[in-house]
């Protein structure tokens, strides 16, 4: 019953008045900033990090964690309401969430996201408390070859994000991967495709791509024919999920939670894969796959749960090993250091109150988020009544400011215009933007791990097949590719048969 | 389902071939390296070639049996104005400072809509300038001067 | 002390929610581009540009000294992170900033290696900056995966010489401190190793702990937690003296490789032509901050310490920069690394 003792210690720390208060302030600030277009969780945490520097260590970390998942939550809200994702997981939420909003069902979409996140957060907190150290040792088994295969699998799975043909989705993914190569090559430092502009050495910013492909392209489509097309239905059909909605979201939430919790543990990019693997799974096993992309509530509930579960379990490598899984975790390492705690495997033994307090606070934070956001749904939905002539300039302006504020880099702003036009044309040609965005996020991981695996194996490509984890993932990737392409073949055969009749 | 020549498919294919091809050409200018130590050019070369191949496939398919998609009208005014507004923002934010840049950008974007009246546009631009100053400069304490060096500050 | 800092943080937080009046904010922000005369300096906020990400070691060190420096100067110091291209973007920004003392740069050893790594840097370290003073020298440690065969630094050298084409040497990216230390290791031992670059110390250390790569050299800030927990094997620390937080770890000199000396030295810079009185004021404030017990304690936890007072001066800093520029130009040229 060590677990109960630990949790008791955790809750006694996390429930201290100042900790609950700052946890609340954290999720509130995170939500408020995360909801701004163009500012995702990483930027939110980086921006608000200094606020926490003068607190007690445990309070600071609790607040920082609160900012992180609050920002993630706020980002989903923006994705659903105005189709503007602040990070890759929110891009998945936008697919069906924004479609629901257009149909006047923003309320149920937001509620499904909130409830899914809460369930996922609760389960993941328990997983974190019960099995953090063993899970962490599993994570360490993943080498560069395994990550390469995992990412390749993820890329193939993201074909499912498109409604259109697998061929176009594949092309968009590959284009995304290609755009991800812009910037300084990490192996040699060679700047690639930067046209001698030092501002491009860091590559193209994700937010610029997302704001362009989703935000600007969407606005241009809405302005195509202002007389007949209304951007967002201001009439609200229902604010809360119907009984039918509630029935439909249970299984996706549970599946998403499991999937996300498992992937989140992997420090080399597992959390990025969580939400869209969940989307692909839901679309695949649904009896109504044609509804996906047209406002299927499962397409919001599953990925949101997966994302939140992964966000939570991605703390496992950080807390048990002192190893950051992604940029937000790297910022948390900084926070540890500022507070005089040496991040590393010893934190769990040296600072048990901090360790368990932080874990317990995550659950409290999820409760607070739910309490904060369910009442806010009405307010958000009302925001959609803002006339579009005010709303779209606001989106573009805020997105430009938000993007610029990240690195004070004008090229990030120029990139918005470029991707807006590119996305607009491609969308008009039946190529959907989500696969490109994911290719863009995963591409650098693919290249990095491919090259690293080959350096370590001295150029021997058989390493991808001789490592069991990698071989299994590659096999899965092949299956996923066959499954994705199969319907096209079957449809063609149906056409052929119809002609024979 | 009817299948015939599809302009959007051919256009999409063309874009993929063009961008993929540009990256292939660019990648050839970088070192390709060896299998053990792939150079900076190797990966973009491979992926660029894949994009070209996929683009060709889409274009060819579009010529024989494409997807029937209606391309629809292009809101030229909105495209021009929004691109201009975004580029203006990026270019002048450091030079004119936060307030003037924001005001002009907001004003320009508002004009993207064909239905907007000038007075509304001015009102929206003013409102958005105040709102964004409050949120980003006051609230988030962005380190951007309110008035920039071009205005003599 | 704690209450005041908490009060300040709360105040900032309220500001962050956006409740503070516009007028108050204007007085705080409006003058960012202004300038005053040296006698009244500082009459507005000073910005310290950190050319690396928030939360990284350089950022941490900067934030540690910012508060006591601000207290001494009698103004407010804001830390701004301008990342990119190995710190050269942020440094370039400061080089072009107004030389009025309100834009200060914190940079580390990378200031002395950039000219050798980058062909078109856009600034010259010695000519485009005034040095203010050195801040700290963070020691580095040579660490390996737990089950790596060599037991001591001497063994390691023998081992890599015998297995040069098998051993992998990880680093945190081109131009990172770990990369530089790795280059120095290779040039001292005369062995060319297969280097495995990562994006930052975090992922590199993850693979080292996971046993995917053999060894690396990185700052105590990053490695001491893993060393203390026994997750990695440590061979030596690269400074002339042992580190307080790792008392059992020999120095490279003790372990028989005295040429392998390197530390991640940090210093403050202002744009060239900043009035000398202002540079002097900043240097004085730096000295006060480095003598602050809180700063000393915080640095000790990172396995480092403030530089002695005589090094926190413009002249000592300039001498160090000059010497390091020459040292690294040679090592980097010999290694054949060139970024652009």
UniProtKB/TrEMBL annotation, chain A:
- Specify the domain of life of the species encoding this protein: Bacteria
Q: Which residues form the signal peptide?
A: none
Please state every residue range assigned to the domain named DUF112.
21-438
Sorted alphabetically, the keyword list is: Membrane, Transmembrane, Transmembrane helix
Transmembrane segments annotated in the record for this chain = 45-69, 109-132, 144-162, 169-188, 200-220, 315-341, 353-374, 386-407, 413-443, 464-486
Q: Which Pfam families match?
A: TctA
This protein is called what?
A: Tripartite tricarboxylate transporter permease
Species this chain originates from: Micromonospora trifolii
From TrEMBL, chain B:
Alphabetical list of InterPro entries matching this protein: DUF1468
Q: Which UniProt keywords apply?
A: Membrane, Transmembrane, Transmembrane helix
- Taxonomically, which superkingdom? Bacteria
Which parts of the chain span the membrane according to its record?
Answer: 7-30, 42-64, 76-98, 118-140
Q: Does the keyword Ligase apply?
A: no
* DUF1468 domain span: 11-145
Task: Indicate whether rRNA-binding appears among the record's keywords.
Answer: no
The protein, known as: Tripartite tricarboxylate transporter TctB family protein
Native organism: Micromonospora trifolii
Automatic annotation (TrEMBL), chain C:
Q: Which PROSITE patterns match?
A: PROKAR_LIPOPROTEIN (PS51257)
Which top-level group of life is the source organism from?
Answer: Bacteria
Gene3D superfamilies in alphabetical order = Bordetella uptake gene, domain 1, Periplasmic binding protein-like II
What InterPro entries does the annotation carry? BUG, Bug_dom1
Keywords attached to this Swiss-Prot or TrEMBL record, sorted alphabetically, are: Signal
The positions making up the signal sequence are: 1-32
The family assignment reads: Belongs to the UPF0065 (bug) family.
Output this protein's name.
Answer: Tripartite tricarboxylate transporter substrate binding protein BugD
Organism the protein comes from: Micromonospora trifolii
């Amino acid at each position: 019953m060590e677990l109960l003792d630990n949790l008791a210690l955790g809750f006694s720390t996390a429930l201290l008045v100042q900790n609950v208060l700052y946890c609340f302030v954290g999720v509130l600030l995170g939500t408020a900033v995360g909801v701004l277009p163009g500012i995702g969780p990483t930027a939110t945490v980086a921006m608000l990090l200094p606020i926490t520097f003068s607190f007690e260590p445990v309070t600071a970390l609790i607040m920082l964690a609160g900012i992180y998942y609050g920002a993630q939550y706020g980002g989903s809200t923006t994705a659903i309401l105005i189709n503007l994702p602040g990070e890759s997981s929110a891009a998945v939420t936008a697919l069906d969430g924004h479609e629901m909003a257009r149909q006047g069902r923003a309320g149920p979409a937001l509620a499904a996201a909130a409830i899914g996140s809460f369930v996922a957060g609760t389960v993941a907190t328990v997983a974190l408390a019960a099995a953090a150290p063993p899970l962490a040792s599993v994570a360490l088994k993943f080498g560069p070859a395994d990550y390469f295969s995992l990412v390749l699998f993820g890329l193939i799975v993201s074909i499912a994000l498109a409604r259109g043909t697998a061929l176009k989705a594949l092309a968009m993914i590959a284009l995304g991967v290609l755009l991800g190569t812009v910037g300084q090559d990490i192996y040699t430092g060679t700047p690639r495709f930067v046209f001698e502009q030092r501002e491009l050495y860091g590559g193209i910013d994700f937010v610029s791509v997302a704001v362009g492909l989703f935000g600007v392209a969407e606005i241009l489509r809405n302005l195509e024919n202002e007389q007949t097309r209304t951007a967002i239905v201001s009439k609200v059909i229902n604010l809360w999920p119907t009984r039918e909605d509630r029935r439909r979201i249970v299984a996706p939430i549970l599946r998403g939670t499991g999937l996300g919790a498992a992937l989140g543990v992997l420090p080399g990019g597992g959390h990025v894969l969580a939400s869209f693997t969940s989307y692909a799974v839901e679309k695949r096993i649904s009896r109504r796959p044609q509804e996906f992309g047209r406002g299927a509530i499962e397409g919001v509930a599953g990925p949101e749960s997966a994302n939140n579960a992964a966000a939570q379990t991605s703390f496992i490598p950080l807390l048990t090993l002192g190893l950051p899984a992604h940029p937000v975790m790297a910022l948390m390492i900084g926070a540890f250091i500022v507070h005089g705690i040496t991040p590393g495997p010893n934190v769990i033994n040296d600072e048990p109150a901090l360790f368990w307090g932080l874990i317990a606070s995550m659950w409290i934070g999820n409760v607070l988020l739910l309490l904060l956001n369910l009442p806010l749904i009405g307010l958000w939905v009302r925001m959609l009544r803002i006339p579009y002539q005010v709303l779209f300039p606001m989106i573009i302006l805020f997105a430009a400011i938000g993007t610029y504020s990240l690195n004070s880099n004008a090229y990030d702003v120029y990139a918005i215009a470029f991707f807006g036009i590119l996305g607009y044309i491609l969308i008009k040609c039946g190529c959907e933007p989500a696969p490109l965005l994911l290719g863009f996020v995963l591409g650098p991981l693919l290249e990095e791990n491919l090259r690293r695996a080959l350096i370590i194996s001295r150029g021997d490509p058989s390493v991808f097949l001789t490592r069991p984890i990698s071989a299994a993932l590659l096999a899965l990737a092949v299956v996923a590719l066959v499954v994705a392409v199969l319907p096209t073949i079957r449809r063609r055969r149906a056409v052929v048969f119809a002609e024979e009749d | 389902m009817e299948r015939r020549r599809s302009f959007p498919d051919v256009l999409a294919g063309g874009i993929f071939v063009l961008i993929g091809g540009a990256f292939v050409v660019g990648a050839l200018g970088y070192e390709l390296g060896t299998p053990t130590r792939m150079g900076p050019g190797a990966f973009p070369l491979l992926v660029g070639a894949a994009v070209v191949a996929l683009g060709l496939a889409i274009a060819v398919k579009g010529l024989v049996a494409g997807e029937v998609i209606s391309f629809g009208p292009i809101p030229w005014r909105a495209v021009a104005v929004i691109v201009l507004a975004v580029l203006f923002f990026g270019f002048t934010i450091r030079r004119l400072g936060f307030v003037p840049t924001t005001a002009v950008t907001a004003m320009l974007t508002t004009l993207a809509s064909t239905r907007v009246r000038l007075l509304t546009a001015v009102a929206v631009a003013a409102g958005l300038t105040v709102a964004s100053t409050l949120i980003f400069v006051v609230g988030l304490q962005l380190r951007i001067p309110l008035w920039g060096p071009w205005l003599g500050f | 002390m704690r209450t005041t800092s908490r009060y300040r943080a709360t105040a900032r937080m309220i500001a962050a929610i956006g409740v503070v009046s516009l007028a108050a904010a204007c007085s705080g922000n409006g003058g960012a581009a202004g300038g005053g005369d040296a006698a009244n300096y500082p009459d507005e906020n000073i910005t310290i540009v950190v050319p690396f990400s928030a939360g990284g070691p350089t950022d941490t060190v900067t934030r540690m000294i910012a508060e006591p420096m601000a207290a001494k100067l009698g103004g407010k110091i804001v830390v701004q992170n301008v990342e990119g291209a190995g710190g050269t973007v942020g440094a370039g920004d400061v080089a072009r900033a107004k030389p009025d003392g309100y834009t200060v740069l914190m940079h580390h050893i990378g200031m002395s290696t950039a000219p050798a790594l980058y062909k078109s840097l856009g600034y010259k370290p010695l000519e485009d900056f005034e040095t203010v003073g050195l801040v700290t020298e963070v020691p580095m440690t040579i660490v390996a995966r737990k089950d790596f065969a060599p037991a001591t630094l001497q063994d390691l050298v023998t081992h890599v010489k015998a297995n040069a084409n098998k051993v992998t040497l990880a680093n945190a990216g081109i131009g990172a401190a770990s990369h530089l230390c790795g280059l120095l290791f290779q040039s001292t031992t005369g062995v060319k190793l297969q280097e495995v670059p990562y994006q930052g110390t975090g992922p590199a250390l993850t693979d080292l702990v996971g046993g995917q790569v053999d060894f690396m050299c990185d700052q105590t800030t990053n490695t001491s937690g893993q060393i203390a927990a026994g997750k990695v094997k440590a061979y030596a620390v690269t400074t002339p003296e042992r580190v307080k937080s790792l008392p059992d770890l020999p120095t490279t000199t003790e372990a028989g490789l005295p040429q392998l000396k390197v530390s991640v030295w940090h210093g403050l810079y202002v744009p060239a032509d900043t009035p000398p009185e202002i540079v002097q004021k900043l240097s004085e404030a730096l000295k006060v901050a480095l003598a602050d017990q809180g700063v000393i304690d915080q640095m000790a936890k990172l396995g480092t310490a403030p530089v002695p007072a005589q090094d926190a001066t413009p002249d000592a800093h300039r001498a160090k920069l000059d010497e390091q520029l020459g040292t690294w130009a040679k090592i980097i040229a010999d290694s054949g690394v060139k970024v652009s």
